[in-house]
Amino acid sequence: MSAKTLNVALIGYKFMGKAHSQAWRTVGRFFDLPAEPVMKVICGRDAAAVAEFAQRWGWESSTPDWRDAVTRKDVDLVDISTPGYTHRDIAVAAAEAGKHVFCEKPLTFTVAEAKEMLAAVRKAGVKHMVNFNYRRVPAVALAKKMIAAGDIGEVRHARFTYLQDWLVDPQFPMNWRLRADAAGSGAHGDLGAHSIDLARFLVDEIDQVVGMKKTFITERPAEGTSSGLTATAGEGTEKVTVDDASVFLAKFAGGAFGTFEATRLAPGRKNFNRFEINGSKGTLAWCFEDLNYLDYYSTDDPDDRRGFRRIIATEGVHPYAGAWWPPGHMMGYDHTFSNAAADLVTNIASDKHCSPCFKAGARCVAVLEAVDNSIKSNGWAKVEMIE
Ligand code: SOE
């Protein structure tokens, strides 16, 4: 174990709080890190509930006040796993207190706020990273390597779909993800942000977009109690203020065509985050519901042997996989968070750039916002290239 430590404050203890806690618990066991992350403090608004969470997950302490957590002298890194409307204030305060910042996606809701956050971390000279966890699936990181190596040639088509079905029942009650003031947008920012990030990671910058969004179920039973994605109904109804679905076309800077679809109303699709990328000499396809496999077709194969092959990306030679179990001992959702934590700790401890940084997060917000602009103007919208 390393002599150096990195003390973590985690803000938020619901769905993402659990995923991040699991990552902090496991990362130092599976990866040889230059610093050992220490689970110093967990923060959540309900003091009793967060104290219980701290005990269950192994946090040294808990607090109901995020300002208290981010200004503690013994904290090095602030990890933000709260709903999007809180990201800006917490990230800026953490940077001003000289802490490194790790933030859930989407970074925030508007380009203006994203720029503020980027300016704050740059001014403070701290490390910053956004948790686009799907970059850290070994099969996806392998796709990145293959595209960069020219294995599928020049990319022409990039197709991204992110489909879920947890809102298909009109009786599913309200929760914060259905309120614009808390979540910013619906499927567009929650799921589309992941697809946009994967597109930027794997293919290219997005230059122009044209899209549409729709709320198919405009009113739902009021919120009773909720936890993560599950909820019980309260009294009466409430208006839904975010989209159920968004679809857009994109022109990549290098000329490729992109199509993007995000919805929470696709019966049977649970976490169907999929891409297919067609190049001049091959195709790569991946879907989170079968996350260990990367499908690859190559025109370099002899004519009579051509066909899609399925690579099980769990070999020691595949990104991240060597840190885990033997080949074929499949990986899941939580590994993506641990893999992200491993990169983050390594880069902070070695004083290296963390990726995707807040600039990447801001560029993703710029694409989301450009889609909204295109809806308003009923035409193509240019994406601001944030520096
Ligand atoms: C809910 O739609 C959700 O948990 C998203 O918020 C996550 O970012 C996505 O990875 C899985 O689905």
Task: Considering the chains and any ligands shown, give keywords for the structure.
387 residues; alpha/beta; 9-stranded mixed sheet; 6-stranded parallel sheet; 11 helices; 28% strand; binds alpha-L-sorbopyranose
Q: What low-confidence regions span 5 or more consecutive residues with pLDDT below 50?
A: none
Indicate the mean pLDDT: 97
Q: Which class of secondary structure composition applies to the elements?
A: alpha/beta
What fraction of residues sit in β-strands?
Answer: 25-35%
DSSP summary, beta strand count:
17
Output the CATH class name of the largest domain. Alpha Beta
Q: Work out the helix count.
A: 11
Termini gap:
38 Å
Task: Give the second-level CATH assignment, the architecture of the largest domain.
Answer: 2-Layer Sandwich
Largest sheet: 9 strands, mixed
Q: What coarse outline follows from CA principal-axis ratios?
A: globular
